[in-house]
Specification:
Shape: globular
Radius of gyration: 17 Å
Distance between the termini: 25 Å
């Protein structure tokens, strides 16, 4: 039941994350996500069997953390009105959506009295999951959002090196998921305590 419970929360959280990428791109002039039927909160349009179900279950069993991802929402950076920072704005929209979700449910948990233990647990997992997704996606590892946010602020030669790393992106991400997660756990715990006050 704990795994199912966590998978539902992960799915809810990654759908919001991907939807906001598409929403921001749409607002900035690129309708690719809308045209592909991905500008929706329907989880069926976003689910990825490995990233949304199998990997989250393995990570939860191994670490107790709820983490996963959905199919990336497509967008065409050449359609964006802001050619310099447009891609960075699209990239940051996903992590910001997770931050807002964590704040909303975390402050509800913090300030609404008399919540029963089941609801407290449910809200706490929502907050933790969204903090994990935000922090992880902001890592400057291609193709994660953090690399795309960082890109327009780098000198051209470093941009090219970062783009070259994207060929190994899937391997780098997997290595971090299974071996590097302890690095970000203190940050996750700090933000969780800061938001919920416990």
């Amino acid at each position: 039941m704990d795994i199912i419970f966590s998978l539902i929360i992960i799915l809810f959280s990654v759908v919001i994350h991907e939807y906001m990428h598409g929403w921001m791109a749409d607002r900035l002039g690129d309708s690719t996500a809308r045209d592909a039927g991905r500008l929706t909160l329907n989880p069926v349009a976003h689910i990825d069997i490995w990233g949304s179900i199998i990997m989250p279950a393995l990570i939860f069993l191994g670490t107790g953390l709820a983490f996963g991802y959905a199919k990336p929402v497509p967008f065409n950076p050449y359609n964006l009105r802001d050619q310099k920072y447009g891609s960075a704005k699209v990239a940051i929209a996903g992590p910001l959506a997770n931050l807002i979700t964590a704040l909303f449910f975390g402050l509800f948990l913090r300030f609404v009295p008399g919540l029963n233990i089941v609801l407290v647990s449910f809200l706490a997992v929502i907050v933790q999951t969204n903090i994990v997704l935000m922090i992880f996606n902001l890592l400057p590892i291609p193709p994660l959002d953090g690399s795309k946010v960082l890109m327009p602020f780098l000198p051209y030669n470093l941009q090219m090196k970062l783009l070259q790393l994207e060929h190994y992106g899937f391997v780098l991400v997997l290595l971090f998921v299974f071996f590097g997660f302890p690095i970000i756990i203190p940050i996750i715990n700090f933000l969780f305590r800061l938001i919920v006050g416990m």
